[in-house]
Amino acid sequence: MQSNNSTSDPSSTLFGANAFFSLDFGQTWGGQIQGAGGTNSGDPTTAIGLNGRQYVGYISTTGGMGVSYSDDGINWTSKTGSSASSLNKNHLTIDNSAYSAYEGYVYNAWVAFAGYNSMRLSLTVQPMMGGRGHLQSVSVTQ
């Protein structure tokens, strides 16, 4: 997985949080320069589950939060963590402890810079359905 804020040079186009892969130890590369799972606004964060599923978190094109996941690094599915705008400072992690009751849960956190939850940390939890379940968002700070 390649996760960065790719832009053209000079910086006039934002390609978003993209994903690249190599199946031959870096001799050749494939992937999506326009964003993992589709167009997005960057600020990437990544995680890989014990089952090999790859996750890329990012700011969506609407200013909300999104997460894309892939089992093969080629085909990506996008999920919306929040469709609110003015969200930033996102972080993504996964519980990879095989002994945890929450193994496989994906945690996506961010800060809202406008609106009701302004300057509050929010957390989206993706249950053990490996990206197939629904996302639940809660505010974790007052």
How would you portray this structure in words?
The chain has strands at 5-7, 14-17, 19-21, 30-32, 45-48, 54-59, 65-70, 77-82, 87-94, 106-112, 121-126, 136-139. Strand 3 and strand 4 (30-32) form a beta hairpin. It has one domain. It is mostly beta strands and 142 residues long. It has a 4-stranded antiparallel β-sheet, with no helix packed on it. It has a 4-stranded antiparallel β-sheet with strand order 9-10-11-12, with no helix packed on it. Strands 1-2 form a two-stranded antiparallel ribbon.
Mean pLDDT: 74
Total DSSP helices: 0
Count of separate structural domains: 1
Kindly state the number of beta strands: 12
Q: Uncertain runs with pLDDT below 50, 5 residues or more?
A: 128-134
Q: Going across the biggest sheet, name each strand in turn.
A: 5-6-7-8
Question: What is the CA-CA span between the terminal residues?
Answer: 35 Å
> What profile does the largest beta sheet have?
4 strands, antiparallel
In angstroms, what is the radius of gyration? Answer: 15 Å
Along the chain, the helix and strand elements come as EEEEEEEEEEEE
How much of the sequence lies in strands comes to: 35-45%
Shape: flat
Share in helix: under 10%
Structural class: mainly beta
